[in-house]
Amino acid sequence: MTRTHRAASVAAAAVSTAMVTVLTFGGAASAQPTPPVPAESGSPVADPADPAESDGAVDGAVDGAVDGAVGEDLAELSRLSEEAGALGEELHKARADLDGAIAERDRRERAAGVAGALAAAAEGDARRDQSIVDHLATMRYRGGDTGATRAAVLAESPEDLVQRLDALRRLSGATTSALDASKAASAEATRLREEAAVAAAEARSAARDAEDRTNELDRRSDEMRVRMDEVRRRVDALSDAQRAIWAGGPIMPEGYVAPPVDGVNTAALRTALTRLGSPYVWGATGPSSFDCSGLMVWSYAQEGKSLPRSSQMQAVAGSPVAMADIQPGDLVIYYPGATHVGMYAGDGLVLHAPTYGVPVKLEKVDAMPVSGIRRY
User: pTM for this one?
Assistant: First the structure.
């Protein structure tokens, strides 16, 4: 979308054009009168009360009012169109954010499930090891001494005593190890479960927040849809002269030659140039109609490269490029809110999908305020 300066330019163009042509707007027609010529010496002086002269003055006043009304109407039309386009880009980003939040929530919930299963297994091992400890404790309680004294009493030979003491040492060591492992496993399982629960809760909260924001944008989108319909109605009702002002000139400057293809970016530009003259449609990503970011997405997708869906996301992905280093195929981001995007086409021109009623076209790269340049 072009922005505030477009409103001013279409208004100025409307008034300028009205000075030399007839403009029909809202069913009314008017034409600028010929400037008055001073009377020659001796020529009859027009009677101030002459009805013809009076009518001319009235016509001039009406024409001036119509000229101003045309400019104001086109400026208002531009503002409505800009708001709709900016909201559309915000919706693209919000939906992408929501999808990412839901995916992260699902990932964390799966991780929580795995952690829970590991915790359950570790707790099972801990219970098994604890049963051994409990069994030994029970034997001691009942008088079944398992110590070295009892082993010495029961040994039938020195060799038997060595074996009994070794078995006792191994059993005691295994019991201690099992108990330590059980405690460690239980502590780790508890930690994992707590972390997984926190992560899942955070992910669900993030998804809810994203969904709330999207619902709010959808609500605004419903309101803006009314404005979009109004934009369509007004643009479709423009006269040929007014439509020429709205479109703002040819889709390709005379003498433009596309740069040679030397990689994916210039190939994407060549692909985008095949869409010159295609209509602007809010939310469209081709192949026959586009919004501003949709044209970028489609063009690069034909060359096997995936771009983010919204102009705001395109403004932070890729690599930053200085204006002095700009190359064909680079994305040019416009306005502080990154609400519009085009593709540098060489020769100081940018290819973009401007707004409803204006086809995909080439314009000067500095025709709008540049906020950044990205290379993909």
Answer: 0.63
Number of domains in the chain: 2
Residue 224 lies in a domain: no
Our answer to whether residue 135 is catalytic in this structure is: no
Integer Cα distance of 286 and 295 in angstroms: 7
292 is catalytic: yes
Q: Are residues 174 and 253 in the same domain?
A: no
Q: Which residues of the chain have pLDDT under 70?
A: 1-70, 129, 132-133, 135-155, 160-161, 164-175, 178-179, 182
Peptide bond connecting 287 to the previous residue in cis, omega within 30 degrees of 0: yes
Q: Are residues 324 and 366 in the same domain?
A: yes
Judge contact between 217 and 84, C-beta under 8 A: no
Dmax (CA) of the chain: 157
234 within a domain of the structure (yes/no): no
In a domain, 80, yes or no: no
Q: Which of 5, 92, 135, 352 is catalytic?
A: 352
Residue 177 backbone dihedrals phi, psi, to 5 degrees: -60, -45
| Active-site option among 5, 92, 135, 292 | 292
Catalytic: 92? Answer: no
